[in-house]
Amino acid sequence: MPDDARDNRQPTLQTILLTAVAMLAFAANSLLCRLALQHKGIDAASFGSVRLVAGALMLGLIVRFRAQPPASSARVDWLAAVMLFGYVAFFSFAYLSLSAGTGALILFGAVQLTMFGVGLRSGGERFGALAWFGFVLAASGLVYLVSPGIAAPPLLGAVLMAIAGVAWGVYSLRGRGVADPLAATARNFTRAVPLALALSLVFAASARVDATGLVLAVASGALTSGLGYAVWYAALSRLSAMRAATVQLSVPLLAAFGGVLFLSEAITPRLAAASVAILGGIALVLSQKSRSARR
After folding, report:
1. What is d(CA 1, CA 84) in angstroms, rounded to the nearest whole number?
2. Max Cα-Cα span within the chain
3. Of these four, 66, 97, 106, 169, which has the most CB atoms within 10 Å of its CB?
4. pLDDT in tens, 115-166
5. How far is CA 62 from CA 29, 174, 185, 232, in A?
6. What is the pLDDT of residues 218-272, one digit of tens each?
7. Contact, 73 vs 186, CB < 8 A?
């Protein structure tokens, strides 16, 4: 389907459900990363390697035993694999020095700027006034949610997380129009594994892995990364770049609620107000047809 037709199409219920599942997986992945890295159960390089290996194995098994064979003419997308590796690696190392709120703000700010900039630069997507208002409302809610305590973050951690955000934005854009999202995600994970293992060798002297860290990394790779990214690729084929960028604003919010449920953090009025702003803004963006500049 041409991009114009896809971008002018309203999201279907299936697309909305796929997107919701992907966002929940991303939020769960964030919680797993925090537990593993902040409690020092595993080092950042090893976490990234285990995460990618577990994801590649899980996706490989699913592709191998599913009824539908992978498309034989599928293109090799090394750029997507490199971007996936870059996101995983830079994300892990950035969280060694950044707080969760500051890291989320930098990460998803970079994602939005990357995907939003590409969408506008291509000339193929335009927002109406209500959708613009929804995006600003959602972004403002995110800033409001993570703003307490944010000062000048460590420069190295901030740069690493910004690079991770750009890498994730590019990876997401590469997934638009993929005919077989599951197979494409499996190939990307498989190609990213050697890069992650090479990085682990570089940091072998500081490697550490205990049982808890290993379990969290495997869960992050096999479930919330591997399967989550496959679902995200399936949703991306039906989302414009701007919609795809906007819905990801929900991830820090979902992660915050995950902290409430699983880490015994309190529900605050600030969290409730941010929830209304972020989810309401996303609903406005998704309710508007993205207008094409190519007629």
Report:
1. 26
2. 58
3. 169
4. 777 766 666 666 678 878 887 888 888 777 777 655 556 778 888 988 998 9
5. 20, 22, 11, 16
6. 999 999 988 888 888 788 777 876 677 778 778 878 877 887 777 666 677 877 7
7. no
CB 203 within 8 A of CB 49: no
Residue 202 CA: distances (Å) to CA of 11, 40, 46, 122, 164: 44, 19, 11, 38, 19
Tens-place pLDDT, residues 197-215: 999 999 999 999 999 999 9
Whole-angstrom distance, CA of residue 229 vs CA of residue 26: 8
- Token pair 């996936």 is found at 84
* Backbone angles phi and psi of 63, in degrees to 5: -65, -40
CA distance 79 to 232: 18
Q: Is 52:192 a contact under the CB 8 Å cutoff? A: yes
Average pLDDT value for residue range 37-63? 91
Instruction: Quote the CA–CA distance of 233 and 179 in Å, as a whole number.
Output: 10
Record the tokens describing residue 163, joined without a space: 């690079």
- DSSP-derived 3-state class of residue 127: coil
| Residue 134 contacts residue 288 (beta carbons within 8 Å) | yes
Q: Mark out the alpha helices in 73-227 (DSSP H runs).
A: 78-94, 100-121, 129-146, 155-174, 181-202, 211-219
Residue for token digits 């600030």? 270
DSSP class of residue 209 equals B
Using CA atoms, how far apart are residues 91 and 160, in angstroms rounded to an integer?
Answer: 7
The pTM (predicted TM-score) of the whole model is 0.77
